[in-house]
Structure formats: C-alpha cells, structure tokens
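Below is a filled-in request sheet from our internal design queue. Each sheet records the structural input a requester submitted and the sequence that came back. We keep these sheets so that new team members can see what a complete request looks like end to end.

REQUESTER: design group, bay 2
PRIORITY: normal
MODE: inverse folding
CHAIN LENGTH: 463
BACKBONE (tokenized):
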C-alpha cells in the first residue's frame, strides 16, 4: 500500500512539471535563463501578428546558422530570423525581376543540379540565383565579373574578313628556261680569239664573244659579190647565220669580203656554260656557249598532295631565301605540273620571280607561301582558339553581356592563318570567347562543365 502511495506522488510531480513547461516560457522549471537570452519564438510583431522564429544566424553575418538558440565563442547571442522576415525577402526578390524580365526558376548557387520555383537558401544560407527568361539552365551560364577577370577570359567580335589560306612548301631556284640560248655556228670554223673567256660573265646583246674564220662563210661572201643581184646568194648568207652587220658591210663594199668575223652575242645574259677555247676547230651545230637571262627566274616548289588541288595559275606567292633572309620576294604561280612524285607524294609548282639585281642564284633553297584564297570574297570567321572541338561537334562560347555566356554549336568551313570560317551558328557582331575557354571540358561533358561556373561571388564560410 505504501508503494502505491509513493508512485502516485511521483506521477503527480511529473505531470505538474510537464504542465509547467507547456504553459510557461518554453523552458523547464528551474532553467537558468541567463545562459541564452532566447526571445519568445511566438513573439508578436508590431501589427499584432504572431511571429515565429525559423532559425538563428551569426551576429556578424557569417555563413553559420543554428536551428536552436546559440552563443558565439565570445558569448554573444545568435540573432533570430523570423518567418515574416523571410517572407519579406522572398516578396522583394519576386517583385523586382531584372530589367522587367520574367524569372523562370532559381538555381543552386554552387552549380548543383537543384532548382526551386521560389526564392530559397541552400544549407549554408546562400541565396539561390534567379534564372530569367532566355537564360534557361543548359543554354547559358552566368560567370561573375571577378571570375572572368581572374580567368583571363577575352572575347573578339565575329567579322567578315578575307580568309588567308597559306600553302607552305620548300622550293629551289632555277633559271627561266625560256631565256636560255645556245650559241653555235652553222658551218665549220676555227676560233682565233675568245673575247668572253669565263663562265658566269654577264654579256649584253651584240657584245663580241669570239673571232672565227670559216671557209664556208668566205665562199658565200664571194658568191654574193659575183651575183649581187641574185636572191639566192643573199639567202645563203642568212642560212649560215652570218651576222647582220657583216651582210650590211658586204652590200656597201662587195669587193672586200670579211675573212674573219667577230661573232656577237645573240641575246643578253649570263654565260652559264663555256665549251670553247681559243684556237679550237668547231663543227657546225656544236654548242660554244650557253646564255641565260637572270632578270627573271623560276622557283620550283614541292607542294604536298593534299594542297596541290588548291593551287591555280596566277595565285600570288611570297618567297624567302635562306641566303637572303632580309629580302622577301613576290611572285606568282605560272604552271602546275600534271604529275606527282611517287616517292614524296608532292607536286611541282612553277613560280616566276623577278630578279633585276641578279642576287638570286640558281639552286638557292627557298621557302614558298602560296595564298590559296587570293581573290575570294570575305567570309564569316572567328579565331581558331574560339572553337571547342569535341570530335563529334564544334562549339563556341558566345558572350551575351553582363557576365552571361552561351555555348552554341556551329558548323565550320575553311581554315587559314589562325582563322576558321563559320557557316552556321553565328552572325556578324556577336562576341565569342577566344581565351580561357579551355576551362570547359568539351570532350567529356560540356553541359556539366558549364554548370561549374557561377555568378555568385559570396565568400566561403570561415573555417
């Protein structure tokens, strides 16, 4: 019986304690309130409405929150955040859309795949970022100006420009075959004197090369004197290629035929070969000299098989010689040979170059650059660094202003000189990112990489 009385008394004390907590200030009887000066979670506001505390935040505004009353390390109370304060914040966010544009959704400030139809905070207290109409997730991404500057992002405008497509190839300087001239006699003769007795000497047209005695030419002169009015006698002299000045002198004085003749150079040029010496007897048709005009030379370039189809006659060419590093030359494509070298898979391209000072020597090594796009209309181009090529598709990052960037697929055309043609996807005046777009991993997951950017520049929580 005594045990029942004791149990009943204990139960009465417990019920009274619970009742005291339920109707009291939210604390157990005897709780010392000076530990945390917590406000009443159901305190009434100025309008008389009941105010409910949602959570407590750090008094310095740090990203530190608590679901219950708490003190800082230096003894200060955490500040309560009421439900009506959070509602006012949401209403203010919703009432002022950017530039009057409609807010579609709110995305996670850390780039996580989490969105909200209304304003909210993440677990660290960071505000979700509004996504406006036209800025839907997946089609555009916002990057803070601070991050843009730190990343070294640079943009350029899409322009209509001539696309220079240089074709580079090695070449060798050769004499212009059209200027080569062989000096021969059409009759047997004896070389008495050589006036030009060295290879490489430059001679002018009409300058004396050698003195020759030819019995056949002397006989033809005597026949002309006997039958001066006979056309056959004059024709025989011309058939023997007797110089014109000898024939004119014979006409004025037919009784005095020339026994020896100073043979003139038929053209001006450089002596490429000399095959005669003084006192030598030469046969008709035997080459004595070979002359070449070096005021124009050829450069024979070996163009790779994949580029040979782009080369056409008349294309401008820039030429540099290793022996003349400070003297660039201009030329043009004069001919493209009709076959390839089976060993090197290259085609021969003949380029004409002016050489008035005769400083280009035969067999000099040349570096040739053919402009394969000469005369073409301007094209819509961007720098090649602007294109992110994943192998299956090509993307450029378009700047839409105010830190907003959009990945846009494009179709590429011709390439050349650091530029690439855009056939679809861009228009003149748009700006594309040309540096720091390597931050986007286009080969693995372009969309996921773009989500890693964020416009939020809130500092991280203090450790």
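RETURNED SEQUENCE:
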């Amino acid at each position: 019986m005594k045990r029942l009385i004791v149990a009943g008394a204990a139960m009465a004390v417990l019920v009274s304690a619970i009742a005291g907590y339920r109707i009291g200030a939210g604390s157990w009887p005897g709780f010392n309130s000076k530990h945390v000066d917590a406000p009443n979670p159901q305190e009434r506001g100025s309008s008389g409405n009941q105010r409910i505390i949602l959570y407590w935040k750090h008094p310095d505004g740090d990203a530190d929150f608590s679901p219950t009353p708490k003190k800082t390390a230096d003894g200060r109370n955490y500040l309560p955040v009421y439900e009506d304060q959070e509602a006012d914040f949401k209403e203010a966010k919703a009432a002022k859309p950017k530039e009057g544009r409609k807010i579609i959704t709110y995305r996670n400030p850390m780039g996580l795949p989490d969105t909200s139809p209304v304003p909210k905070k993440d677990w660290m207290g960071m505000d979700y970022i509004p996504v406006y109409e036209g800025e839907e997730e997946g089609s555009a991404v916002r990057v803070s100006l601070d991050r843009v500057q730190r990343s070294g992002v640079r943009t350029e405008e899409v322009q209509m420009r001539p696309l220079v497509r240089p074709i580079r190839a090695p070449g060798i300087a050769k004499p212009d075959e059209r200027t080569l001239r062989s000096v021969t006699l059409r009759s047997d003769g004896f070389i008495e004197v050589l006036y030009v007795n060295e290879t490489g000497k430059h001679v002018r047209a009409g300058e004396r090369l050698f003195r020759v005695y030819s019995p056949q030419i002397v006989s033809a002169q005597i026949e002309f004197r006997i039958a001066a009015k006979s056309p056959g006698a004059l024709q025989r002299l011309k058939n023997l290629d007797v110089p014109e000045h000898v024939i004119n002198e014979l006409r004025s004085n037919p009784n005095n035929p020339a026994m020896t003749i100073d043979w003139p150079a038929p053209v001006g040029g450089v002596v490429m070969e000399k095959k005669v010496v003084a006192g030598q007897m030469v046969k008709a048709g035997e080459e004595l000299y070979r002359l070449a005009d070096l005021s124009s030379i050829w450069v024979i370039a070996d163009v790779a098989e994949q580029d040979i189809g782009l080369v056409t006659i008349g294309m401008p060419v820039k030429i540099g010689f290793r022996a003349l590093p400070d003297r660039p030359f201009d030329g043009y494509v004069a001919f493209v040979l009709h076959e390839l070298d089976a060993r090197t898979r290259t085609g021969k391209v003949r380029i004409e170059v002016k050489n008035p000072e005769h400083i280009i020597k035969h067999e000099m090594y040349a570096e040739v650059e053919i402009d394969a796009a000469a005369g073409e209309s301007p094209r819509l181009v961007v720098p090649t660094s602007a294109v992110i090529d994943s192998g299956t598709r090509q993307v450029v990052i378009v700047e839409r202003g105010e830190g907003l960037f959009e990945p846009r697929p494009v179709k590429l055309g011709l390439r050349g000189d650091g530029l690439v043609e855009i056939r679809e996807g861009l228009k003149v005046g748009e700006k594309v990112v040309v540096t720091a777009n390597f931050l986007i991993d286009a080969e693995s997951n372009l969309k996921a990489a773009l989500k890693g950017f964020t416009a939020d520049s809130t500092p991280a929580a203090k450790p």
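SHEET NOTES:
- The chain is about 20% helix and 35% strand.
- The first helix runs from residue 2 to 23.
FILED BY: M.R.
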